[in-house]
Amino acid sequence: MANYEYIISSLPALAPDWKPGESSFGQTVEWIKSQLGPSDKKTVDRLLSGFKEENLDRDFYVSALSDGNRFIREYFGFDLNFRNAKARFLNKAFGMPENKDTIDAGTGEFEEAPKMDAVLAMTDLLKRERSLDSLVWDKIGELTLFSYFDLDSVLGYIAKLHIIDRWTSLDVETGREMFFNLIDEVRGTFKGVKDNIIYED
User: Fold this and answer.
1) What distance in Å separates the CA atoms of residue 22 and residue 9, rounded to the nearest whole number?
2) Is the Cβ–Cβ distance between 193 and 145 less than 8 Å?
3) 8 Å CB contact between 33 and 41
4) Are the C-beta atoms of residues 129 and 154 closer than 8 Å to each other?
5) What is the structure's pLDDT at 129?
6) Among candidate residues 24, 68, 75, 11, the one with its CA nearest the CA of residue 42
7) pTM
């Protein structure tokens, strides 16, 4: 059985004086996987496969929504609703059929829909992208709220680190801020409580 407490408590120490490029997303994930057993590694790989756009077809989501791991099921259920909402917004903006390029995999109600609609209505494209990622960040925090030292807490860490990695390549200061928010979470309660991330224009 993996020592999740050791993994989680060790993660911030990987880059205490973090600077872009010192420890890449891939390097961090490989270290995490080196501490896990075969079954947990497969679960991490399922999460990572969902970060690749080319994998996100209906078969992927159907499989993810019936996965044995709760975080995988709920994270990708949210992810599908999130992407469908974006597609419908763009379809409406360009006069296309509402459900063009959406996937129906039976995810149920999308509770975050009102917040997402408000974000998608923003005219500042950079602020909109940051705010969309903030919705995802908060959802990850919600999914790991009562995860202390378990695989879900590790998966949540990786999912947040993936967001940070994306923004680091676009905006160093945003990436730095989000990284230290994540460190504060892990050093604090290990519960994955939500951050109040402030984005500046």
Assistant:
1) 19
2) yes
3) yes
4) no
5) 85
6) 68
7) 0.81
